[in-house]
Amino acid sequence: MWIFHRADNSKCFFLIWNQCLYYAALACLLFSTVRTDVACPEDCICARDSGTVTCRDGKDTEVPGDIPEWTSTLILKGRNISTLQRGAFMSNGTETELTTLSLSYNGIRVIEHYAFLGLPRLHLLDLSHNSLEFISARAFHGLLELRSLYLNHSLLPPATEQLSNALSTQSLPNLHRLELAGNMLKHIPQIRLDMHNLHALVLINNSIESIGGDNVTTLYQQRRIRFYLSLNPFRCNCELEAFYYWLKNSSQCPDAGRLVCSEPESRRGVPVEKLREEDVDCMNENLEAVSYVFLGLVLALIGVVFLMVLYLNRGGIKMWLNNIRDACRDQMEVYHYRSDTQTHGASLCITDINREAHRALIYSVTRTSSSL
Q1: Largest CA distance in the chain
Q2: Exposed site from 56, 193, 225, 256, fewest CB < 10 Å?
Q3: Residues 6+ apart with CB under 8 A from 271
Q4: Rounded to two decimals, what is the model's pTM?
């Protein structure tokens, strides 16, 4: 126990106490555990200067749970993450500072509800090149700042039907760009475009053959949105009329020059913009169809009249047929009589010839004998 009676001794005490505190703090720093926010997850590459963490080709089936707090861009690629569970990106129940999240080529099949909780500042989400079979209606809940959502080459038919519900909520009020390329879509997805702040909808390389009048009306109403539609097999017939005039009169399709026809064969490869108005004129096609129908009705009427005439004159027709039959029978009897006569005459002629030949042979033999 220290006991001091003078001021000089008290100064010495405070100096010793400060040194003890200093060494104690230094010991705590040396023997304390390393914080996870400065460590890099296993099988990942961390670049703190750019705030990027890249994890490729790992065997993990879940999202790494030790992502550094300074991470702004997280790239997970080539993993075996089949299911994105609720709060998959929350570290110890806290929010992260991620602004960019790339999850392409991970074999993701299921996105559960609230899977992206804890990412309030996320601006870009890339889910391309997965095999999505199920998307919860609340899958994107909490992404209030999301600007771009990429779902290229990812949607299987069940997920395609569920996408409209997942995008119809108020979860994505600031979504500017939605990419759905390469998903074999046959129609523009039935999503509430007016509920989002969309500026670009990418639908290239799908299976869209025609865009009906109802969808074209929606396109006209959403004038701020740019639609990308190249590499679709458009069927250039009357059904494309409304879309054709929208394409000619609107600037909402930046890749309009690359839209080409796949059917019919006579127009294959022809740019949709280069079609003539008569190629998609429903009136002409309808008139042509009406003409064929009218011709068919006329021919059917003529057939009915002809059958009625036959029915009303069935007695005379029967008599006429009987007369023709009798005339044919008489003619055949004459033919048989002539045939028999000719056959008998021919046989008599052959007999006479044989008889004369026999006589000539006997005469020649007799004469020969006499000369000898």
Answers
A1: 200
A2: 56
A3: 257, 258, 259, 260, 261
A4: 0.67
